[in-house]
Amino acid sequence: MNQQVSPHTLPALPYADNALDPVITASTIGFHYGKHHRAYVDNLNRHIAGTEYADMSLEDIIRATSGKADKAGIFNNAAQIWNHTFYWKSLRPGGGGEPPAALKEKMEAEFGSVNTCKTVFSAAALTQFGSGWTWLVLDGESLKVVKTANADLPLTTGLKPLLTLDVWEHAYYLDYQNRRPDYVKAVLEKLINWDFALENIP
């Protein structure tokens, strides 16, 4: 279990704020990471101060508050910190391309081909109504694509996240306006971090 000392802090980006240019610009990173992600951290610390959750790790808070309507404020902020931290790691400068052999083998076994897996992933991202996330996950030994709304995440349903794509509008609107398909295509072709996905396979 990853224990974390409260108060929770904003994790550092794994690269410079202009490293994903031009697919995701430094301007978008400035707002998305510098404003949105930071706000989730600040809000969570405010919500949990003096409560039973104050000294819990992020994952413990998420599991303890999932599905509890009276704890939605805590869950949403904790889950969004976790989701965003995972999202930044799911991207890398010079990403995309061919997945590592072990991941490619799993994709081919489950979907028939890497391209089919990417097509299913893209379709999930494009059909997520409103705000949410698209995930490549392990369900036991099986590779799956799932999507979640708002702050929801696979951790609460026993799935193992391998990588994610943020499809909240603030993730792409400055760069792509309402063209979510262009954002999804560009990330899959040029930024997706297949190595990170492989690292998350037990």
Automatic annotation (TrEMBL):
Domain spans labelled Manganese/iron superoxide dismutase N-terminal: 8-91
Annotated GO MF terms: metal ion binding; superoxide dismutase activity
UniProt domain Manganese/iron superoxide dismutase C-terminal: residue ranges? 101-198
Q: Which Pfam families match?
A: Sod_Fe_C, Sod_Fe_N
UniProt xrefs under SUPFAM superfamilies: Fe,Mn superoxide dismutase (SOD), C-terminal domain, Fe,Mn superoxide dismutase (SOD), N-terminal domain
Q: Which InterPro entries is this protein grouped with?
A: Mn/Fe_SOD (IPR001189), Mn/Fe_SOD_BS (IPR019833), Mn/Fe_SOD_C (IPR019832), Mn/Fe_SOD_N (IPR019831), Mn/Fe_SOD_N_sf (IPR036324), SOD_C_sf (IPR036314)
Descriptive protein name? Superoxide dismutase
Organism expressing this protein natively: Desulfobotulus alkaliphilus
Q: What is the lineage of its organism?
A: Bacteria, Pseudomonadati, Thermodesulfobacteriota, Desulfobacteria, Desulfobacterales
